[in-house]
Amino acid sequence: MSAAHTRRGGVLTRGIQVCALVTAFLLLWASVRLTSTAGSNVASVAAIGLFLVGGTLASELLEPLRIPHLTAYLAVGVVAGPYVLCLVRQPTVESLLPANGLALALIALAGGAELRLDMLKKSVRSLVWATATQCLLVLVVMSVVFAAISPLVPFARGNGWSFLVGVSLIEGVMGITRSPAAALGILSQTRAQGPIAKFTLAFVMLSDVVVIVLAATVIALTKPLVEAGGTFSMAEIDHLGREIIGSIALGTTLGLLIVAYLKFVRKSFIVVLVALGFGFTDVIQYLQFEPLLTFLMAGFLVQNLSKQGDALLHAVEDMGSVVYVVFFATAGADLDLPLLRRLWPAALLLFLSRLVVTWGANRASTRLAKDPPALRKWGWSGLVSQAGVALGIAATIERANPSFGAAFKALAVATIAMNELAGPILFKAALDTTGESSSAPPASRATSMPPS
Amino acid sequence: MSSLLLLMVLLLVAYFGSFLVGGERSVSGVGLPSSVEWVVLGVIVGPQALGVVSTSLVDAVHSVVTVALAWLMLTAGVQYAATSRGRVRFSRLVGSLPWALATAGAVFAAVWFALPRIAPELVQNRLVLCLALAAVSCETTHHVMRWVRERYGASGPLLDLVEDIAAAEDLVPMGLLVALFALARGAKIVVLGPAGVAGVTVTLGVVLGGICALLLGREFRLRESWGTVLGISLLGIGVSATLGLAYVAVSFLIGAVLVGLSRHAGEIRAMLQPTERGALLPVLIVCGVRIEPHEVTHTAAIFAVVLAARIVTKVILARLLVIFEPDARAAGGALGFGMLSCGSLTMCIGLVCALTFRGAVGDTVLAVSAALCVAGELLGPPALRTSLRRAGELPEPAAQPAAAKEVAQ
């Protein structure tokens, strides 16, 4: 990520970047046309290479247009992906998704480490009001909106009122999910330091915990309404409790391990981070805990209960130039464009409604919390993006509701795609407009530490 | 053992490798110059001994091994013709290439003519086998010079000369690999013919290395440079491996062209060199695990032919060096044996062959590579020390610790 110290290249530099970008695409195009190794291991390696080169170059080329780097990465993924140029085919995209587990782990770790206790204490009032309004208002309004547009949604038609109420509530839960990765990615690019940046970071990270709880509760409660023969079971709540407590416990253990390592060894920390990311992701999957919460907790603990927080942040930031590009370009390649084309009217209405209600909820919460004017005006901008967490919840809903889950997920994915594309642009525009993105000098967060 | 557990173990090895190999401790005290002990460890945990790690398990992490191999070659390319004293002079670089070329030619010819007698079942793959064996047997590892310099405190013009020769030789095995992949007709662009395939391989490496150098631009920013170098390398590895080209040679060329064209050669070397330590040890262990001699007696016979050709060539070349190079006059006849050490490059090429030409050919090449490293380890360092002692560049044994301490300081 280089926005903070953007290359003010001249025509020659831009020309070189364009040539390199075209060469990278042409090379992969040639290899794909000449072979049929979709999904093979080497195809995945080439895809990661294209994402890295293409994403980095596209972000620099689009920099003058003030387009966020994340959007450029997504665009490269979309263009190279299975539905446009088909340079990266669907099996290859699927083979890259496990690697995203590592990316998500590092992003969550960084997210937790960015949450400083003193910062949270200062903004506790804002956070409480924002959580209340953003969660409840958005959940209720999005449920109502979905019920209103249900004639446009094939699976919601003609199933009776109880089904519609249940499905609408589930859609409401989808509306309150946000993207920590997108928020962190934009903040990493802009190095913003100000009320909007701090509020967004804290809110998005904390709201994830609320979202996980609310999603599980709503899915369990609506089961009798949406599934024939479905019954409410306390087992779901029991499982949720175990998941949260287990994640916090495991995150604490991981945090202590990181603290001990950074204190006593510190050398080759990036190798250790990769190993921990892979290893713990596997352990978390086995234990059926929540990976985001686990790594968030670990980062939070390292930052607030030790003196090693900055070292952890430096290490994760060093990997940022690679992690964010691969994560978002893969997400772009995974965007189901034909699905979006098919479901765009309903998805667009849901997207616009969510945008409006998020804005409205922000106005209400900031007024109640007596927040500064900048936050009142732009506090909503960082809450629009959706990505991995929303997709994870959509997948959970699909599994929990076999009768309509697949169709529901399709609509959710189409809506997430719109939020994913528009969210980073809105957030960066807000940070640029309020001057937060240039308030911190480039060197203040940069590090010259080598990544090993 | 699952593939994930294997990956974790390899990461652990990489982690410890970053403390041991290539750093301040390895050459000056811990480990052998060829690092062949890690290959032996691989053999011990592999299917030939304890069976903790199976060949199929290694195949499950094939892409990781491919990337690690190519990355090692990228770092080799970045360090090509560079020593701790700086860049090797062009005239010396050109003069050094015949060392590896002659050795490769001798090994090729010896195996070509001996093969029908010692391993007739491999005759149908004669060209591939001979080229692969020539590629694995032509280099001298420059780590042995570093080792004798840092561990024994040796220094002088003879040591500089042989270090320059060893540092310049790496280009020859890479060229042989390009030819091997082009002639093996495994490439997806075989319609272009061997020359065309070889041309595409070289062009790919040069173009990507050039683009990388241009993208790094005037200012060197470490964090951004990582994305560019890693992206270009992975693209090169992925595309060339997909097309069936010599992906390690492409990586090597990317590295060599990158430092050749960039004004930040020093920073790039400093950036990439530490990663070599992490990638090397897991690869060497995988080499050991993958060693499955096709027919032990035939493999032993091929090894004997290769070693004999290698010894004869190196001894003759060393003799010529002693005659024509003033700095080498006092070295004596042991110098040829001193140039027999080989190491990570040989093992990496052996593993590339084993993974690409699966079956008898690949297995034979990898087994011979490992045996060459062991033989080189036994013969090379003592002979080199003898030569250097004769040339007055290595203190007598009693004085060595003090001299080594001085060098360390």
What are the defining features of this structure?
heterodimer; A: 452 residues; mainly alpha; Na+/H+ antiporter like fold; 2 domains; 17 helices; globular; B: 409 residues; two-stranded antiparallel sheet; 73% helix
Structure notes:
The complex is a heterodimer of chains A (452) and B (409). Chain A is an all-alpha fold and 452 residues long. Chain A has 17 helices and no strands. Chain A has 2 domains: 3-97, no CATH class; 100-444, Na+/H+ antiporter like fold (Up-down Bundle). Chain A is globular and about 60 Å long. Chain B has 409 residues and is mostly helical. Chain B has one domain (3-20, 31-408): Na+/H+ antiporter like fold. At the A-B interface, helix 1, helix 2, helix 11 and helix 13 of A face helix 1, helix 4, helix 10, helix 11 and helix 13 of B.
Architecture per CATH nomenclature, i.e. the level-2 architecture of the largest domain in chain A: Up-down Bundle
> Rough shape of chain B?
globular
Based on secondary structure, the structural category of chain A is mainly alpha
Radius of gyration over C-alpha positions of chain A, nearest whole angstrom: 21 Å
Number of domains of chain B: 1
Pick out the low-confidence regions of chain A.
Answer: 1-7, 439-452
Rg measurement of chain B, Å: 20 Å
List the helices and strands and how they pair.
The complex is a heterodimer of chains A (452) and B (409).
Chain A: H1 11-34, H2 41-61, H3 69-80, H4 90-114, H5 117-122, H6 124-149, H7 161-175, H8 180-190, H9 195-226, H10 234-264, H11 269-287, H12 291-304, H13 309-333, H14 337-369, H15 373-378, H16 388-400, H17 405-433
Chain B: H1 3-20, H2 36-45, H3 55-60, H4 62-78, E1 82-83, E2 86-87, H5 90-118, H6 126-137, H7 143-152, H8 157-168, H9 171-183, H10 193-216, H11 222-243, H12 247-261, H13 265-290, H14 296-324, H15 335-338, H16 344-356, H17 360-390, H18 400-408
Helix pairs in contact in B: 1-13, 2-13, 4-12, 4-13, 4-16, 5-6, 5-8, 5-14, 6-9, 6-16, 6-17, 7-18, 9-10, 10-11, 10-12, 11-12, 12-13, 13-16, 14-17, 16-17
